[in-house]
């Protein structure tokens, strides 16, 4: 099976192609928020580099959030468009799960985060499934949490690996927290491809938003009305 993976849900951008469980190509870029301009050229570069046409792809996999509202929409729209145009299946993968998946062989608890603005984070806690090492167990479902909320949850565990935006944005972490290194901090499209194998293919995927956008919140504050 040929799987094309996409992640545009955070500050980084990643595309990958996996063929029968073998990673053939992966491109990761973390420089400037220009996902709308770079995604399609990067996919074209990847496909040309390995001599594969889009109609050979069996499955499109994409992160669906939570994360950047604009970034999530870009990736989901492209994945849906390819699946529809080529009559192929598409799979949505959690941004936080994809982020944690690079650490799936660690014995520690994994805390994946993306910036939810105003000092909050989209966050979820994961742990390696001992019976199925390629699978992550969800310890705490995706939610919008403050630093105080996170500290109250972290104290339950002996050691936690902190992944994602909170690595930079949260300076004074508890003593039992280890910050992920720069190469294992963001979602990778290869992880998106692998996680898609654990899910059922669909004809269409939807973004996952855990809260209203900043624009909606500002509108409500200004007008006292809901969009």
From TrEMBL:
InterPro entries: ATPase_NBD, Gcp-like_dom, T6A_TsaB. Keywords: Acyltransferase, Transferase. GO terms for molecular function: tRNA N(6)-L-threonylcarbamoyladenine synthase activity. This is tRNA (Adenosine(37)-N6)-threonylcarbamoyltransferase complex dimerization subunit type 1 TsaB. Its EC number is 2.3.1.234. NCBIfam families: T6A_YeaZ. Residues 34-151 form the Gcp-like domain. It comes from the Bacteria. The gene is tsaB. Coiled coil: none annotated.
């Amino acid at each position: 099976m040929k799987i094309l993976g996409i992640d545009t849900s955070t500050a980084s951008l990643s595309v990958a192609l996996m063929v029968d469980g073998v990673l053939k190509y992966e491109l990761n870029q973390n420089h400037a928020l220009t996902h709308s301009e770079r995604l399609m050229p990067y996919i074209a570069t990847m496909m040309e580099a390995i001599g594969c046409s889009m109609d050979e792809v069996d499955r499109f996999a994409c992160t669906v959030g939570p994360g950047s509202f604009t970034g999530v929409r870009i990736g989901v729209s492209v994945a849906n468009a390819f699946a529809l145009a080529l009559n192929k299946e598409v799979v949505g993968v959690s941004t936080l799960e994809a982020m944690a998946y690079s650490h799936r062989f660690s014995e520690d608890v994994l805390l994946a985060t993306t910036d939810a603005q105003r000092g909050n984070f989209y966050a979820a806690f994961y742990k390696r499934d001992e019976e199925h090492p390629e699978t992550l167990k969800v310890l705490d479902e995706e939610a919008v949490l403050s630093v105080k909320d996170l500290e109250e949850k972290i104290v339950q565990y002996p050691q936690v690996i902190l992944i994602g935006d909170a690595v930079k944005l949260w300076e004074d972490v508890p003593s039992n927290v280890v910050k992920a290194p720069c190469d294992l901090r963001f979602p990778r499209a290869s992880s998106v491809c692998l996680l898609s194998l654990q899910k059922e293919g669909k004809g269409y995927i939807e973004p996952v938003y855990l809260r209203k956008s900043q624009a909606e919140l500002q509108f409500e504050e200004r007008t006292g009305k809901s969009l």
